[in-house]
# Entry
Amino acid sequence: MFLQSILLIGQASAGGGLVALLPLVLVIVVFYLLLILPAQRRQKKVAQMQQALKSGDKIVTSGGIYGVVAGVENETIQLRVADQVKLRIARSAVVGFQPEGGKES
# Structure
């Protein structure tokens, strides 16, 4: 009888340890689903957009410069920001396309 009681207590405490970890595991899963997964998707989408740039695309850089792509090289692009003014920037500096209805350059 005494031995049986000890075995039951040992089983209860082992199960209690797993139950105590369950909220921590749930928080980690929710954190991953709400923060990490969407950020990875957004990063992948931006990388695809940067690789698909072509001449004539109206873009915005991470520094806030608006312009039109004049030429595309391996890791850089030529950005026309005004008549006779071209900048050479890193392809990774492009954060998106110009919004429609924006100011023409």
